[in-house]
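[Automated response] Your request has been received and processed.

Submitted sequence:
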Amino acid sequence: ATVLHASSDNRAESVVVAETVQAFITAMDSLRLQQKAVDEVQPLIADIMSSLGKAPNLPADFEGLLKMRLWLKKLNEMRAMDEIDEDDSRQLLFDLDTSYSAFHKHLAG
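Generated structure:
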């Protein structure tokens, strides 16, 4: 059925979901483009954390939230000019991908 007039709650949830999806895709794309500097990667992970924090009915122990929190902690302990190495880049991309998939599964119920 087509919804012509969604409630404001549904619209707000839709915006949060769209922002979260966009944050994941942007972060994954940046790593695939070999962006490894902390001042390039850290804001992207912070955006994911912020979006996940607003996501509807996301459990506090959501796997993606826990992984992103660990990555954000690690990046915050580094200097802006530092770069993550190839191993960390690959692991972060893997964690982003699995967290993104878990987010989709959560949305599907």
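Summary generated for your ticket: The mean pLDDT is 92. The first helix runs from residue 8 to 32.
If you did not submit this request, please reply to this message.
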